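Why does residue order matter? Because the sequence determines the fold. Keep that principle in mind as you read this record.
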Amino acid sequence: MRSHLSRSLDQSRFSDQLSNPAERVRKDIWWFERDGSNIEETVEDIALRFVDEGKPWFERYTDLSTAFADIEAGHDCYNKFYKAEYFAKQLGFEAKHKEYAAKRLHEQARIVL
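Structure:
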């Protein structure tokens, strides 16, 4: 399982200079001045985002059954089938393990062709 943190600090003075429009709107990157003049406020924002977003995420996904349910609710794709196959095996759900192993192999064959 993985996630990301979202910056709440306004750093448009950095991102507005980027040429790619998609990069300009990203909130998962923090920018530091070369001289380190904004290091304190930037690190503080990262820490606050971890407390607000990261800690609850870790608490939620400490429960493997919850993680597995979230994986199953995701859109069908190779990555979902891969994760579900191994989570089901770890959780002892043999029928689900076989089901997702078959789906993963089928999707793998489809992608390779």
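DSSP finds six helices and no strands in the chain.
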